[in-house]
Specification:
Length: 526
């Protein structure tokens, strides 16, 4: 699904054209970070001339009021909730729209779908058509401003890219969490440790035992740089054999060059910030609950005493489940029973950790140290996810998260090599949240909740179990084309893309209505 026609159509609709002025009219407050346009990355781009293939253009990034800021996201989704089958939607977020509407399903721009059933080995090859369009958009392509009645050069640039660790690793051509350099943002080296099943895996604790080296200062991490990442990627590609390329990749954690390096607005890895949804809500918080209940990789408390008695935990699980009857839905989704973790989503884990757990876990541990440690994390995360963050808070958040990770290792890792499984790469990424906020604004600007919502929308549209991926592609293509038609011809009142619930005989509106067979709704439902 080409991107350029979708962007052109947005400027042909007066209502959407007015909403697209948000970026141009946004006024930054030097002391407060409220949106992605308060980040250092955006301000640096605004002072930089666009350069394509080494040729500098006579204009800077986002110089024109109609230039579009985009965020790229992708993730693997299972049409039938089977992990063996997956497809990968390619979605763009339009940052020119106000925050309250930019993540609505109707405003997400789908530019393609990598079909299943297997995960793509070379995701970059599927992104080449999008990259070519973005290069054209960086130079400018003709479009019509319906409101002003003029033809202008439409330009658009990628400002952020986000997804879970496997998705970003595929995009950036990094080895990811299975490599000797598992972090895409810094050069921390992993340590080999024993898994619960007797195998080995790579972990990245700050405290290094034995010959692994001295402890690492979490505030002095050596960050990756764009030019170095590209150079190392080309060196790997120049390897004479697969074995030689694999050895070169192991030395840097980079196995190739991302197709995104061709875009002038992209900086690897700064354009790809930490996604708190996957790192914290889906991984770290469930890991903590498993540690407290003694179900994490068969580890006991060691020399600590942080476990919660099963009877107490069962009581907390029931309280959590029953709390949904008295909590307004405006706060979030209903939280399931804690013992049914398979029913949890990122939203329910977030709801439980931030709103319920601080009260439920109070005085449930044998020592208050563990409760205080958990609450400190929630306080820091609440500051990161707030609608506005003071710039002078960022350093406090950075130091607070660094201390929390060090305390975590003292409590749960205990500097014991046999417990190194507790030091996952998700824990390490906490150390980079403050950097992401500084560069690209609050974490809600680039978390993957919109991507997950779009995946749910795609999954609900599957009607063919025999040819599910062709069915998905056709559905997305048809909806995308009709959205363009809707914007071009101002048909917002005539076209609806949401399923309409049919009226039943028991509905209030049907009590006095004449019942006619085969009555069609007044909307053209797609």
């Amino acid at each position: 699904m080409p991107l350029i026609p979708q962007l052109r159509a947005l400027f042909c609709n007066p209502a959407t054209r007015k909403e697209m002025e948000y970026r141009h009219n946004y006024k930054s407050n030097n002391g407060i970070i409220q949106d992605i346009f308060d980040g250092e990355r955006y301000h640096k781009l605004r002072d930089t001339y666009v350069a394509i293939n080494g040729q500098q253009k006579p204009y800077k990034f986002f110089e024109d009021e109609r230039e579009v800021a985009l965020g790229f996201a992708t993730d693997g989704m299972c049409p039938f909730k089977r992990r063996k089958h997956s497809c990968w939607p390619l979605v763009l977020i339009n940052y020119n729209l106000p925050p309250e509407i930019r993540t609505h399903i109707d405003n997400l721009l789908c530019v393609g779908l990598v079909p299943g059933p297997k995960s793509p080995k070379n995701l970059g090859s599927f992104l080449i058509p999008l990259i070519e369009e973005l290069i054209e958009l960086a130079s400018g392509t003709p479009a019509v401003d319906y409101v002003k009645g003029v033809i202008f050069a439409l330009r658009a640039h990628i400002l952020a890219g986000f997804g879970d660790i496997p998705a970003i690793s595929k995009i950036l051509e990094f080895l990811g969490h299975n490599g000797h350099f598992p972090c895409r943002l810094c050069l921390i080296k992993s340590v080999r440790g024993v898994t619960a099943k007797g195998g080995t895996h790579l972990y990245c604790p700050l405290h290094r035992s034995g010959a692994a080296g001295p402890p690492i200062d979490p505030l002095q991490l050596q960050l990756r740089q764009h030019d170095e990442c590209v150079r190392l990627g080309f060196e790997v590609l120049k390897g004479k054999s697969d074995n030689a390329r694999a050895k070169l990749a192991a030395k840097s954690g980079i196995k190739g060059v991302s197709v995104f390096h061709e875009l002038p607005s992209v900086s690897i890895p700064n354009t790809f910030p930490v996604d708190i949804m996957h790192m914290v809500w889906i991984n770290l918080v469930p890991q903590l609950t498993k540690l407290w209940t003694g179900t994490f990789n068969m580890l006991d408390d060691g020399r600590e005493d942080y476990s919660i008695h099963p009877t107490v935990w069962d009581a907390l699980a029931k309280l959590t489940e029953s709390s949904g009857s008295t909590i307004p839905s405006s706060f979030g989704c209903r939280v399931p029973n804690l013992n049914a973790t398979s029913h949890f989503t990122a939203e329910s884990w977030s709801m439980w950790a931030t709103l319920l757990a601080p009260s439920l876990l109070r005085r449930r541990f044998r020592r208050a140290t563990y409760y205080i440690h958990f609450v400190q994390l929630i306080k820091l995360l609440n500051r990161c996810t707030s609608f506005s963050i003071r710039r002078d808070e960022i350093n406090d958040i950075r130091q607070g998260l660094a201390k929390w990770v060090q305390d975590y290792e003292r409590i749960y890792y205990q500097y014991n090599p046999s417990r190194i499984q507790t030091c996952t790469v998700n824990l390490h990424y906490l150390l980079h949240i403050a950097d992401s906020v500084e560069l690209l604004g609050p974490v809600w600007c680039y978390w993957t909740f919109p991507m997950e919502r779009f995946c749910s929308y795609v999954g609900a549209s599957v009607k063919s179990r025999r040819f599910p991926y062709a069915n998905i592609v056709r559905r997305i293509r048809d909806v995308t084309q009709l959205r363009i038609i809707r914007d071009l011809y101002h048909l917002q009142g005539e076209l609806s893309f949401k399923p309409i619930k049919p009226l039943m005989d028991t509905d209030e509106d049907c009590k006095d209505a004449e019942k006619l067979p085969d009555c069609k709704p007044q909307w053209n439902t797609i």
